[in-house]
Amino acid sequence: MLLIACPYCGPRAEIEFAYGGEAHIARPGPGVTEEEWAAFLYLRDNTKGVLAERWRHSHGCGRFFNALRDTRTDRILTTYEMGTPRPDIKEGEAA
Amino acid sequence: MSGAFRVSGRGRVDTARPVSFRFDGRTIRGYEGDTVASALLAQGQHLMGRSFKYHRPRGPISAGSDEPNALIGVGEGARHTPNLRATQVEIHKGLVTVSQNRGPRLNFDVGAINTWLAPLFPAGFYYKTFMWPRGFWDKVYEPVIRRAAGLGKVATAPDPDHYALHYAHCDVLVIGGGPAGLTAALAAGRTGARVILCDETPELGGTLLSDAHSRIDGLSAAEWVAKAGAELKALPNVQVMTRCTAFNYGPHNMVALNQRLTEHLATPDPAMPRERIWQVRAAEVVVTAGALERPLVFEGNDRPGILLATAARTYLNRYGVLPGKCAVIVTADDSAYRVAIELAEAGVRIAAIADLRANPDAPVVAEAKARGIVVLPSTTIQKANGNLRVRSVELAPVADNGRVGKGQRFVCDCVLMAGGFTPSLHIHSQARGTMRFDEVLGVYLPDRSVERLRSAGSCRGLFALQDVLDDGAAAGLAAAKAAGGGDAERPAPRVTDADAPGAGGFAGALPRRGLGSLALAFVDFQNDVTAKDVKLAVREGFQSIEHIKRYTTTGMATDQGKSSNVNALGIASKELGRAPQRVGLTTFRPPYTPVTFGAFAAHARGDQFDPLRLAPADGWARAQGAVFEDVGLWRRARYFPRGGEDMHAAVTRECSAVRTAAGIFDASTLGKIEVVGPDAAEFMNRFYINAWTKLGVGKCRYGLVCRDNGFVYDDGVVGRIAADRFHVTTTTGGAAGVLNMMEDYLQTEWADLDVWLTSITEEWGVIALQGPKAREILAPLVDGMDISAEALPHMGLKEGTIGGVPMRLFRVSFTGEVGFEINVPSGRMGAVWERIWAAGSPHGLTPYGTEAMHVLRAEKGYLIVGQETDGTMTPGDVGCGWAVSKAKPDFIGKRALALPALNAPDRPQMVGLLTDDPRTVLEEGMQLVRAPEAPAPVSADGHVTSSYYSPALGRSIAIAMVKGGRDRMGETLYAPAIDGAAIKVSIVNPVFYDTEGVRVNG
């Protein structure tokens, strides 16, 4: 079970959270092409390595936030608030 | 002494406390501290079970959790647990045990004929043999194979015991209480760090308890263990748990332990849980899992009486039990010589030590020779003879060129195997640790892991006792420091008199004369996999060790390859012509040893399996004799039988009451969310497909939610309480999902909106009052409120009180009749319900359940999300195209709903179906095709989503999703039945009753 640091509540066990899929996928407006819309809906990087992903502290504060997790090791490099840019951290640099 | 093979002055069993137990109906006497295996061996009985596939007679090869053979059933009736290792089961008064997989008796097994048929059961036997004819699989092959091959039988009665689950946190978790684990726990504990030390056996000490030779700090090994254990127990920051197995290493240092609390007790406190699972989150983990001695692979190596040399030493020094009267020892390692010397001292005749090495020259070898023990260097074992017990062996010289010479027979009643030591990598491997091959030791050692763990002692290839103790202490201190602890005096026990660690060891099948035979040279004892099977797999083209494992099933038994992995690797490596490090090792998977389902389930069983949500009128419904059904976590009244009615009769009566008088229904399970804030209307506009800006205060509207893929997700009535306040309802099952989706868009996409979302499902109880007399019943009860058709029309909403209780009154209908949904605080709903019930009874008010609710809505063609929809239906598909706002610049699903594919004319569309025979009620889920006798495969035109007998129409009705269905009214389709002919149906309007919708406005 992962130990996830909610930016608002601190480290908590994974059962308190709900997974929210890949982060930083901006929802386009209704004027986009079909291809662009399909890409927004379905195309994901399926990263092997450091992935920015969304979590919600659903059984805690209820807030969504982002995490950088290495999908090979499950190591979480950092967590950060929604609306802030992806931190420039690579695997091996995290605290 | 109890048992002919028990020696006095040896062992840790309490000879002052005899204990009797039963094995296969016989009374066996042992002592407190014995295991089933040690007590049986003390009687001279090695035969303890029959093997999985060939029903081979088997005895224990080990004295611990790596035991593959001696699996027994323990306990009676509902407490019976199969497949426990006799080497671990502690005896107590009244213990009842049985052997397994034998028929009819342990010493006479008709299934043993499989041994003679073994050449017919090669690797991949099942894949190759039972392919044809197809019909034989479930009727012949599987039942026969299942009966012939197998392990113990599970209890079928409910488990009478209870189990517990505990979470724990610590700085340092030490896995294994052997020499390295003790010094690791001492070193960490002395720093003040919070330490948990667990060990799977009843006593701390590990191999030290079997070591009668080494001395530590001037004490015997066992005395030093007692001293170390006492210091640990005196440290308040150290928790020691024995009979406690670390069986799973999860991400982020979450380690699961299985603690067995009552199994060893004759009369356990009934308040005690039988087992407990500990979920330990450890800042640092020290793995001191030790090493396991490897068996040797030769013809007949599974005969009872053949066991590991270390096991014999444990039986001698821990239990005071001799493995036999005359032993042959076959070794590739120096350690077996100490065992030979100790056994000889205890009175066992050592017929010979066959050493696979050419020049064994350790001091202990000389010591053995000096005692007159015959040592045969460069000697292999060709074969073991005997059936229920080994009777003799054939030892043969191995020449420098590897050729095996003529053998010589040695009579014996036990054979001790010493193939070298395999570091236990299971926990490290579970922690996604990589391994590296050590050329000198010839085994894999732990390398790196992504987790915060370190291995210490023999599990990382250190075998000298002094090294093991020092390594444990260093690892324990390092772990405590890494967890943020300070420094402390490091334990530095001094070892004297210990044997130097043996160099050597062997992996693979032993050399043999000529072609020999490997058909009964077992690699994996538990799964009956032989050296021949592994070789065959390679010959048949399997290259990867993972494939060889799956094809032969080697290493796949419940022992997870503890005794077999390295030998299988050795054979595969030789056969493939590749060095072992280029073959690789298979992944070890949890659990380390089997864990009972009871322990996993813990408290989550029976009525604690899931939380039960009760609607406010639940008690009233129970008093009325309602029949209930589970809807998600909710328990809902399904129908209210009167005077012996069946469901059909009750539902017919309930439906008729709603259509002719009035019905009362607990609708509290509806999900309810309050959307509040200056931007509430804008939020609603963006979230729902409908438009909300123009919805006036005091009005309701049916709202539909899509996902951004354009498919219907949820629906419900939404009331506008104030300009900035919406009372949203959702489906019963969709409540949490809708709120989560609202929060998702609000927090992540629309941070510009000033809106608060609050779940109010639990706050508001909802009484649905439906039927032509509903208003007449309700009017006198609402305090000063005008609820006439003019003042409160259909889809109107008023706030007020009912008998002084605050109320949000929605005029809505899910039945097609005049309807009210009376929202009152849940805690006060019971009283309001009783008042309505009393006022309504003279008018024929009738309680109805979910079944009647479904029928009534189906008669009106109202959809249920999740029944008509399946995650691939658009609003247009289910006849709600009208709800899609054309004016809004954007909403969830807008872009997708403009896709041509979602507007194609052959989209599935919601229609009604009528069967030719009005008595025929279709099955929900039936497929619909155009021709009654179309040959398979045939593609369906649609499927039935709802089907009932309609009391209002006096016939069956159904709702279906049919391709382009709205333009196919009157067309005939067929519903193929599993039994009998296809059922003819015609497509009709899904609104079966009151098509014009007059009644709802009455």
Automatic annotation (TrEMBL), chain A:
Superkingdom of source: Bacteria
GO BP terms, alphabetized: tetrahydrofolate metabolic process
Annotated Pfam families: SoxD (PF04267)
InterPro entries tied to this protein: SoxD (IPR006279), SoxD_sf (IPR038561)
Lineage: Bacteria, Pseudomonadati, Pseudomonadota, Alphaproteobacteria, Acetobacterales
Any one GO MF annotation of this record: sarcosine oxidase activity
Protein's name according to its UniProt entry: Sarcosine oxidase subunit delta
From TrEMBL, chain B:
Residues in SoxA A3 domain copies: 521-603
Span of domain GCVT N-terminal: 620-888
Domain FAD/NAD(P)-binding as annotated: residue spans: 171-430
Keyword Oxidoreductase annotated: yes
GO BP field: tetrahydrofolate metabolic process
Assigned keywords, A-Z: Oxidoreductase
UniProt cross-references to SUPFAM superfamilies, sorted A to Z: Aminomethyltransferase beta-barrel domain (SSF101790), FAD/NAD(P)-binding domain (SSF51905), Folate-binding domain (SSF103025)
Ranges for domain Aminomethyltransferase C-terminal: 909-994
Pfam families, per the entry: Fer2_4 (PF13510), GCV_T (PF01571), GCV_T_C (PF08669), Pyr_redox_2 (PF07992), SO_alpha_A3 (PF17806)
Gene Ontology terms, MF aspect: sarcosine oxidase activity
Family: Belongs to the GcvT family.
Name of the protein in its database record: Sarcosine oxidase subunit alpha family protein
Native species: Gluconacetobacter dulcium
